[in-house]
Fold:
Amino acid sequence: MKHELEIKTRKGDMDCSYGFPITRPRDVSLQELSKRLAEFAEVRGWDQHHSPRNLLLALVGEVGELSEIFQWKGEVAKGLPNWSSDDKERLEEELSDVLLYLVRLADVCGLDLGQAALTKLVKNAQKYPVVVTNNTPSSTTMN
Amino acid sequence: MHARLLDEAKNKEPCLEKKMEYSNGFPRKRDVSLQELSKRLAEFAEVRGWDQYHSPRNLLLALVGEVGELSEIFQWKGEVAKGLPNWSSDDKEHLEEELSDVLLYLVRLADVCGLDLGQAALTKIVKNAQKYPVTSTN
Structure:
């Protein structure tokens, strides 16, 4: 599964070295994605289309595409051991589409998604405290 | 807008204290990485014995459910201005929570699938730039 895209890119689109994106795996921050997406929209004149409801509808559409990948596969083992590299790459793309619209939606709404996520982790920990008898919880969701 | 974090939360789950920087009971604002969220979610599930439930399809269904809850917030509001100028702080906090739920399931799903979501997202930004080049008529 390659992350190399052998193309010239705009300065703001990705860190480049001799026209190639730097492919060293590194930690990626939400603020970095947010800034890149804002520039991406601005230089294309797309800001006018990025209203919260438009972005939400786009996000919902991408979640639909993500769901289609799993739709007829039956249960899927962790790590996707039997998936082809093409299938994994497609999954990466659809997960990314959801993430990018989510980050953009939060930004356009003026919210700090990273901070909100940290706060939600703490709330979840309060809501579901660790107890020795909690191996079969009545709810396994985090909402 | 972020609710005060109770001291007892740190007592119930000691790992929270080392994993979140506190200032007078509030989390300090800082940049948040996808790897950090991924590690916290993995530990969260592990210490509760929830790994058995976190299959890819279960997580995807949970994600879809959270997107539904996110959509409900906007459903009857008509068009919404950027920055949500007319929203109450409670409404904004509710939106932050639902956005976070979607993000957390998405990060967990990618992790359980063995994928590097951050790297994939950077790659997708480059692909999008190729697909939609900047032109003066655009």
Summary: The beta strands of chain A are 16-17, 20-21. Residues 1-20 of chain A have pLDDT under 50 and may be disordered. DSSP finds four helices and two strands in chain A.
